[in-house]
Amino acid sequence: MGHITPRPCDEQILFLPGGNTLFGRKLEALNVKLGHTILSQLKLYLETPVEAAPLAVFRILFGGMMLFGMLRFWSYGWIDKLYVRPQFFFSYYGFDWIKPIGNYTYLVFAVCAVAAAMVAIGYKYRMAIIVFFISFTYIELMDKTTYLNHYYFISILAFLMIFLPANAYYSVDALQHPRKSFQKIPAWTINSIKWLLCIVYIYAGLGKLNSDWLLEAMPLKIWLPSKFDVPLLGDFFRFEWVHYAFSWGGAAYDLFIPFLLLYRKTRPFAFVMVVIFHLMTRVLFPIGMFPYIMIVSSLIFFDAGVHHTLLRYLDRFLKLGKQRFDTGTILVYGSTAGNRLKYAVLLVFFGIQLLLPWRYLAYPGELFWTEEGYRFSWRVMLMEKSGYAQFKIVDGKTGSYFYVDNTDFLTPFQEKQMAFQPDFILEYAHFLKDHFKKDGHKHIQVFVESYVSLNGRLSTPMVDPRVDLAAQKESFEHKPWITPFNDVIKGI
Amino acid sequence: MQRIWGIVLVMTLIWACSSDNGSGSGMSDDVDPGPGPTAETFARGPMLANWADNIIIPAYTDFSERLSGLSAELEAFKAESSEANLVALRNAWLEAYKAWQHIDMFEIGPAEAVGLRLNLNSYPSDTTIIESYASKGTYDLKLPSNRVAKGFPALDYLINGLGESDTIIVAKLGSETAKTTYIAYMDAVLKDMRELSDQVLSEWQQGYRDTFVNNEGASATASVDRFVNDYIFYYEKFLRAGKMGIPLGVFSGNTLPGNLEGYYDNDISKVLFLESLNVSQDFFNGKHFASDAKGESLAAYLDALNAIKGGEDLKKIINDQFDTAREQVTALGTFREEIENNDPPSNMLLAYDEVQRIVPLLKVDMVSAMSISIAYVDSDGD
């Protein structure tokens, strides 16, 4: 490791929109000295030059896993199955212009995979991560049937990484352009990834603080007994206390793991917990890449020494000469307009991340039932919910009707997801209306008989069967045609 | 210390890549089947054994016997083409058709491999093809395109649909030319049916039984998960829609009596429907074939799960709904009368609603209680 000489740097700025004035002045009025201390502490926390190695390791692992993830998705034939073959796709509100593009969809995945590889090696990093973010997000927006919290996590993480100097160290960019090579970077660039992980964990933990999860041990009480064939643990899954232990343990894990990772002394223990927890979820649930992504991401909490070791291991194979990157140079962001804009974007970004999970409070009714404000909120594995929806096409004039065979239009996966989510039901009803209109039907009304079961409760109708869904419009407002949930789930 | 973490990381990554093996089926939740559950839990193995040994194999055996009974009656009719022998032939056909309802839902393993259902019971049949094959005498019944010209529906046409009265039918079937046309074709159709079903039975007896029973795990490819999917698919698609909903016109807006099962025999559609409904309910309750004894079943499984979870008695709710549906359908006239004489066929539509109500109970409540994923979609979840 090269010797490091921090350069005195008067270009450093502390940018806090609103903060410098509002926050600063208030403190000034109280105690100038104290205010100065807090501000300089904050400044230190954000701007202290720190080793760039952790971010480099993060970039390599992130890019590598994304590349692997894309190839895995492709090799399983899921592109064809999920995005090429279906004749109808469910769109996010406002994004119905984003659709799979037939066989060119493969191209989007290819672009995404190449971008991921370029991120991993740090070649034309900024462009690569932007392309990755756009292509990955495009893929996720094509059909909301496939929505997963961890895909959303990857999208926003990729967005954040656009603004991080992840190619400063041990990258092709740094190798080719010594000007862009830095051994140290501002602390916030690494801390921001930690913040995002903390948000994910803590909100996932808060989401579990409800009566179904804690008092009924639902849905684990349903899921665990069905995993009787898991080696070693399988035999225990029939005991009720195990369901409660897993429920409470899971909630406690999510709520406290960020702090255990942040605190140096508990960090090794916390990492072992991370590995155990996520591998357990991997064994128990069809959860794909998510466990590995979380395990790898939590490495960012470790000191730079660990990352330097990892890079030394890597360098034995790549033989790039890791010491070439230990230049002692420090990246400092000047107070340019561009940088100010960057900070503003990131502040808004984190503000949205903090607020979005609470938007459900703006809707009446039970969140788990209506799912209004459910997505993008780190509510992970909280519900055993399934449904059945039978659509009835009625001629409003003559009253004659027929039922729809959903398999004519939807894949089994789409039908399954559609049947218990009101926004899917509405979108599909409109699709049916348009379809039968083209077939020459007139005065079309669309009604649905739906049955939804939530966390072991007996199925009940979720949508008012008397409401003509063809006449209802999608919006961010509450959907009054959702039948109220006939039970109470207390909690967040 | 750093070295240790390096090793931990490398090990993790190796495990990450190797345990996520993406085996042939593409399931991401494939787990190694571990040791079977202990006695106190509900064991899936004994349930599978009950299905195989007391329901499925006896039903296939019985079916095979009914088909040979049908062959015997056909021989008798060939020897003496009388109206009495036609009636006897028809009765044997009906008995075999009823026995078919006992195996129709088991379209898994050998039956799935040969496509037993498509080969034996694709209806409505195409009478033009049947007539032309019977008169020409050259055909390949193994061709998928000929599925509409064979099996039970083809026999239905040949023994019920050739004329208005038995006298006319006997005259057509008993003629000298019929020996090389209609009768020869019936022989061929029956031979095809017997070959296929005997093949399925022998495969069950010679190994598939153990494959089926030993695949007692909880993954999406395990026997219980797969078969529950097949069972619900059968109920929804072939019992509810095929035997009732489609001819009733609930999916098309206008009635299609020609799509009834056993259309040419004016009044067996309802008989076959009720037989199939009973079989579905008996299967749910684990009732042995042709016996009142019961073994491990989906109903017992629900009971066992309910003991853990508490809550509604789903087993009773499902059985009650089966009973209600049966009562309503039993009260109807023959399906052809109901459909052809009423516009709209209100009573049958009401009965259909009761048949329909079982679907969400099985597909939503039961499956969710058992944590069986429907139509085993192989994608990630979170």
UniProtKB/TrEMBL annotation, chain A:
<keyword id="KW-0456">Lyase</keyword>
<dbReference type="InterPro" id="IPR007782">
    <property type="entry name" value="VKG_COase"/>
</dbReference>
<keyword id="KW-1015">Disulfide bond</keyword>
<dbReference type="GO" id="GO:0008488">
    <property type="term" value="F:gamma-glutamyl carboxylase activity"/>
</dbReference>
<feature type="transmembrane region" description="Helical">
    <location>
        <begin position="184"/>
        <end position="204"/>
    </location>
</feature>
<keyword id="KW-0812">Transmembrane</keyword>
<feature type="transmembrane region" description="Helical">
    <location>
        <begin position="151"/>
        <end position="172"/>
    </location>
</feature>
<dbReference type="InterPro" id="IPR011020">
    <property type="entry name" value="HTTM-like"/>
</dbReference>
<feature type="transmembrane region" description="Helical">
    <location>
        <begin position="106"/>
        <end position="139"/>
    </location>
</feature>
<feature type="transmembrane region" description="Helical">
    <location>
        <begin position="293"/>
        <end position="314"/>
    </location>
</feature>
<dbReference type="InterPro" id="IPR053935">
    <property type="entry name" value="VKGC_lumenal_dom"/>
</dbReference>
<feature type="domain" description="HTTM-like">
    <location>
        <begin position="47"/>
        <end position="306"/>
    </location>
</feature>
<dbReference type="GO" id="GO:0019842">
    <property type="term" value="F:vitamin binding"/>
</dbReference>
<keyword id="KW-1133">Transmembrane helix</keyword>
<feature type="transmembrane region" description="Helical">
    <location>
        <begin position="241"/>
        <end position="262"/>
    </location>
</feature>
<keyword id="KW-0472">Membrane</keyword>
<dbReference type="Pfam" id="PF22777">
    <property type="entry name" value="VKGC_lumenal_dom"/>
</dbReference>
<feature type="transmembrane region" description="Helical">
    <location>
        <begin position="52"/>
        <end position="74"/>
    </location>
</feature>
<protein>
    <submittedName>
        <fullName>Vitamin K-dependent gamma-carboxylase</fullName>
    </submittedName>
</protein>
<dbReference type="GO" id="GO:0012505">
    <property type="term" value="C:endomembrane system"/>
</dbReference>
<dbReference type="Pfam" id="PF05090">
    <property type="entry name" value="HTTM"/>
</dbReference>
<dbReference type="InterPro" id="IPR053934">
    <property type="entry name" value="HTTM_dom"/>
</dbReference>
UniProtKB/TrEMBL annotation, chain B:
<dbReference type="InterPro" id="IPR018976">
    <property type="entry name" value="Imelysin-like"/>
</dbReference>
<dbReference type="InterPro" id="IPR034984">
    <property type="entry name" value="Imelysin-like_IPPA"/>
</dbReference>
<dbReference type="Pfam" id="PF09375">
    <property type="entry name" value="Peptidase_M75"/>
</dbReference>
<dbReference type="GO" id="GO:0030313">
    <property type="term" value="C:cell envelope"/>
</dbReference>
<protein>
    <submittedName>
        <fullName>Imelysin</fullName>
    </submittedName>
</protein>
<keyword id="KW-0732">Signal</keyword>
<feature type="domain" description="Imelysin-like">
    <location>
        <begin position="56"/>
        <end position="343"/>
    </location>
</feature>
<dbReference type="InterPro" id="IPR038352">
    <property type="entry name" value="Imelysin_sf"/>
</dbReference>
